[in-house]
Amino acid sequence: MALPQFVQPVEAGSGRAIKPVGQVLALRARDPWREATDRAREIAIQRETVVAFVRAMVDSGVTQNNAVGVLLARAADNRLPTHFAQALAATAKAGRTTPSRSAICEWCAQYREGGVNALLPEHKGRVVEAAGWWGPALEYFNSPSKPDMSAVHRRLVEVDHFAVTYDQVRGYLSGVPAMLGRSSPARIGKNLYRLTEKAYVRRSTENALPGDVYVADGYRADVYLAHPVTGGIWRPELTVAIDMRSRVCVGWRADEHEGTYAVQNMWAECFARWGHVPPMIYVDNGSGYKNALMSDELTGFYARAGVQQIIHAIPGNPHGKGWVERFFRQVKDDFLKLWHGGAFYCGTDMAPEALQKLVRDVKSGQVVLPSLAQFAEAFNDWLDRYAHRAHPEDKTTTRAALWSQLAAIPPHASVTELKRQATVLTVHRAAIKHGRRTYSHADLHAFNGQKLVLEYDLMDDRVGVIRTQDGRWICDAHLVTAIDAIAPNRLEEKRQARASDAMARLQKKMDEQKARAGLVFDADAVVDALDAPTRLLDGPAHGAEEIRLFDL
Q1: Per DSSP, what are the bridge partners of residue 280?
Q2: Which CATH architecture is the domain 213-403 placed in?
Q3: Which residues sit opposite 220 in a β-bridge?
Q4: Domain coordinates in residue numbering, the chain
Q5: Where are the alpha helices (DSSP H) in 331-397?
Q6: Which tens digit of pLDDT belongs to each residue from 202-221?
Q7: Residue 34: which residues within 8 A CB-CB, separation 6 or more?
Q8: For 421, phi and psi rounded to 5 degrees?
Q9: What is the pTM of this model?
Q10: Are 239 and 252 in contact (CB under 8 A)?
Q11: What is the pLDDT of residues 179-198, one digit of tens each?
């Protein structure tokens, strides 16, 4: 039977996940001799020498049993040639000078069936011959759609017309090497295979000191709270930082989303709370951590705060930040699932009917959700208990005890200064313009045409701090341009812009749904209808309906 085209070797760049002929035959029908150790091959060669003596006597007309007896008798009388005697001694078990009669007879039988390969120690039998349906079966099974073995069997029988049973297909696919079986990279995806199947190197933090490295990440908490503004159902976005060595949570914030404002304020509050700026920070590549406001070498937050190195995790590799990911798992399992008896937990493993009932009760006013202040108080209490648990790498001490050994590197700015954002602007006529705001000061006359650094507060835009690009303070410039009768601060502007963007996206979705429902007018059709001859009626005729074109 001619094999289908997909069974042939795959050319480079074709996108095929595996090569059935090239890999299956090499991995499933392996060469035992090539894979054996040098010691195993040496024993097989010595056994072959013993078998050769017996076979030579059998070929001369002596029975195999008598030939083995003659071999052992001559060995006992030291009348064997040297190489035969050495072969007998090398193949004998410990404590014996020669092999037993039964062992020699068994070697002769194995040699007749499988040759010298069969004489290898631990040999499992003859090499399995490749079946014609192996390649197609493996190709079908190693598909990202993850077909079942029964579906693969039906395809082989009904489409490819192979005479094969389901048990044969299941036995083969269950016995192939792991990298080609149910958890192969072609079946579950290369990224998931790398994260769940491939070996990885465990990293230890024993050589690090408390405060050397902070690890941060965001987590949409699996809990329903009352929104601070609307009072509706809300899931806060937690931005959390932990110390890599001690595993103590050094700072956290709850915000609408993990943006630049949330990340910068979390770091500023964290540095000010402990009076320490870590030499290194380990974060992911999210927009809140990696942007000009945070990473710029001159005006970025990290540079202004004194952080020496920023390490960004490899995208798609959560194991790189395993310390903080494990912390989030403990927050979920140990705190959120038990807070208020788990009544407000909303994770994916929550009972659906209980979650639906909670949402109905909240909307009907029967249940009042906890406030953010209540959540913060309970979460801080849990963090204190968590810090006094045994350290995962050293059970003889606690996380808090390790953190108490911190040798602080104090920040050179206050928390208010750390929360400011900065940008480089050019001075014109003793003033600096940032967006819709203009700041002016008499001392700026000397810097007309030069680029200076403006530090501004998102909450208070009345004053902007002006510095040179090397960090030297020049002046505190005052806002001279009025924007509105009641001027909103920068943070409020950002919130309004975000709300406008959200409404625009919702409007697009509404327009799409109207178009799908046929509620959008065709302008050409309307014009054609207006141009068509019409008959004016004083009132609707008997049996007719009055049609108002623009009341549709």
Answers
A1: 213, 309
A2: 2-Layer Sandwich (3.30)
A3: 237
A4: 5-28+129-196, 32-119, 213-403, 420-479
A5: 352-364, 372-387
A6: 777 888 899 999 999 999 99
A7: none
A8: -105, 160
A9: 0.61
A10: yes
A11: 888 888 888 888 777 777 77
